[in-house]
Amino acid sequence: MAGCSETDAALRSLVQAGVPLVTGTDAPVPGIAYGASMHVEIARLVAAGLSPVDALAAATSRAAAAFRLRDRGSVRAGLRADLLLVDGDPSLDIVATRRIVGVWKRGVAVSRTQTPP
User: Fold this and answer.
1) CA atoms lying within 13 Å on the CB side of residue 102
2) Is the confidence at residue 1, as pLDDT, over 50?
3) Looking at the chain, which terminus has fewer C-beta neighbours within 10 angstroms, N or C?
């Protein structure tokens, strides 16, 4: 998502119209980084009028459903376990997603400096 006011206005219009939104960082676009840019994207969704819970759903369950990825998108037994543990409650403060305490990829804890399995 570009940082211009026209983009922000368009996003607000989509939110107000009730258009279902999903996230997806388009790396390697200059200034966009896989994963890290997602935090900016969901914060912009909240700034545009989505609740933090709806922005989190746009990045998880709704995105998985839109792309027909039945093995991910929610925390349930039998699903792929890619998880972040954060310091804070992102359902109240979306910026809490940036305070990462732990990462799990396919159910295995990984260091943020190592390449996930």
Assistant:
1) 8
2) no
3) C
